[in-house]
Each structure stands twice: as structure tokens, then as C-alpha cells.
Amino acid sequence: QVHLVESGGGLVQTGGSLKLSCAVSEHTGSGYAMGWFRQAPGQDPEFVAAINWSGRNKYYADSVRGRFTISRTNAENTVQLQMNSLKPEDTAVYYCLADNRRIPDAPGTKYDYRGQGTQVTVSS
Length: 124
Description:
Oligomer: single chain
Order of helices and strands: EEEEEEEEEEE
Number of helices: 0
């Protein structure tokens, strides 16, 4: 069983930065692709970013491309999401996901593992 634990959320002003981290309970060298989704109150989950197991391929939602950067450190079993130039519309609970077969980029699809989420609030 793989456990994902997110951290790094918080309150930031518009234009600020936050770095989210997802700690994975087992060695990610086993081939898990990782991703981040977010969900704002009253809205459907939204894909944010994803990365393949090697870190070579990265995927971003149009709404965050150029502002957010996903990365991973397999030796430390972590995945990060650097978020810059934050906007109020980035306010949401951010979830980390992992899947052994697919890139987690489609909300509504059941992936292997999901964390409990971390709140990001951007004030205007």
C-alpha cells in the first residue's frame, strides 16, 4: 500500500509563491507516474500538473502553464509543485496522485493512490 502525504499549503497574497510537496511512502522507482489535481468549493476536480516516473515528461493545465513547475526526487520519494504568480482562482485543495500505469491527468478517473489534500488560499 502506497501512502501519499501532501504539505506546503497555506495562505498567500496574489502574486506570491508556494511550494507543495508530496511524500510517497515507498520507493517511486517502481514506476509510478505522479500528478496534482485541485478542487475548489462547489467545483469539479481540475487537473493541474503531472510527471512520469523518470521525471522526463511533464504535463500542465493551460491555466497554470508557465507559472507552476512539477518535479520529483525519486531518491527521496517526493514530488513537488512550485507555484509562482499565484492568483485568487488558484485557491483550492490540492491533491497528490500516483498511478503505476497511467499519467494522472484526467479528473473522474480512479487512479491507484490519492493523498488527503492540502489547502491553498490566495488572497486578493
